Each structure stands twice: as structure tokens, then as C-alpha cells.
Amino acid sequence: MAAAVEEISAQIDALAERVDEAVTEVRNLEEPARTRALELKSVIEAFHKDGLTRIVRHLRADARGKELLMELAEDPSVYTLFAMHGIVRTDEPPARTKEAFVPLGDLLMPPGWKNGPLLSELTEGKPHRLDLDKMSVLILKLNGKVNAFRNECAHQGLPLDGGMVDHEACTITCPWHGFRFDAATGECLTAPQAQLERVDIKIEQGRVQVRAL
Ligand code: FES
Q1: Ligand 1 lined by 177 (C-beta under 6 Å)
Q2: CATH 2.102.10.10 domain locations along the chain
């Protein structure tokens, strides 16, 4: 098995070398041939990425397909291909492919959903802040249950992630002016008409996913 992996790695290295040489030659071409060749390269890559994305999406829609995908990603050649197209994280070594594969980037997320922290990264009773493009989210694990709210206090909209959590009372107190909220429902206990804005979440393969508005 180790010998097979070494052989595949050697093949990948040889192919990568050929690609490097070809790219260097293209870069040395005169214009407009150089631009055209680079355009051709990027069009072919986009074509491959589109096909790969469809294959991966299709496989992920089925439990057995997901398993096969994980097995495939153990192959260094397939892993390199996925990494080239941003389908797996490249900061993880291939031996941890199964974990690295979980996020699949935003590429394979349903529209409107973003990856949040792994459940294992959440500490009971400690607010976790997740900054997305258009919003900041407060994720809170309390008594084993995970809830998420827009990270804006219902009083003046200031961030709540530095708030104090009372585990027994199941509350979070805003660090700015002391408004208290039910940490499970977001209901304000200081000013009953106020309320934290709940953010939808789901747990996929041990990771919190957040519906980004
Ligand atoms: S902003 Fe939170 S209590 Fe004022």
C-alpha cells in the first residue's frame, strides 16, 4: 500500500513538473499568443472544475456516495485534483482527508448557508463569535444545545460575544449596559419588548452551519 502511494506521488510530481514547464514556456511566449494560451488554460480549468463540482455534489447527496467520495479523496492523485479546485482544504495533510473534506469550501454549501465552527471547537457556556461577510453571529453552546443569534444586543446593537453567561440561569448578560437575555430563546429579561435575533443553524458532519442573511 505504501509503495502504491509512493508510486502515485511520483506520478503526480512528474505531471506537476510537466505542467510547470509548460506554464513557463507559455509565459515566455510573445503576445498575443501568451494571453491566448493562458486563457485556454483557465477555460479548461473552469470546465474541469464545473464537472468535478457536479460530480461531488451528486455523490454527497447520497450516504454511500459520500463514503465513496471520502475514500476517493484518500488517493493522493484525487486529493491533489480536489485541492487544485478548492474542493478540499489544502492546509490539511492527506492523512486527515476525511476531516479536511468536511467543509468543501463554500463551493458545495447550499445557497445562503456558511460553515461555522466544528462542534468540538465550541466550549460549553462560552460565546463563540463568527464573522461573516454581512453579519456577525454569536454561537452559544449551553447544556449541550447550540443556539445562534445575530451578534447585536437588542439594546443598542453592540456586540454581545463578550457577554457573561450564567450557566444555571441559562442567560447571557450584555457587557455594555447589562441587559440580560435568555440564552436559549434570545428573549430579553431586562426589557421584555426586546429580543435577540435568532440565526438558523444546522449541524452537518460535526460542524455548525449558519444561514447567512
Ligand atoms: S448594548 Fe447591550 S445593554 Fe446596551
Answers
A1: yes
A2: 113-211
Ligand 1 center from residue 179 Cα (angstroms):
6
- List, in order, residues 6 or more apart from 139 with CB less than 8 Å away: 116, 117, 122, 127, 128, 129, 130, 146, 147, 148, 201, 208, 210
Q: Find the 159 Cα to ligand 1 centroid distance in Å.
A: 8
Mean pLDDT value across the chain? 81
Q: What would the grid cell of residue 38 be?
A: 493562458
Give the pLDDT confidence score for residue 3 in this predicted structure: 62
Cross-sheet strand order for the sheet of 207-211: 113-118, 207-211, 201-204
- Per-residue pLDDT tens over the stretch 145-195: 999 999 999 999 999 999 999 999 999 999 999 999 999 999 999 998 899
Domain 113-211, architecture per CATH:
3-layer Sandwich (2.102)
Distance CA 125, CA 90 (A): 32
Phi and psi (nearest 5°) for 210? -120, 135
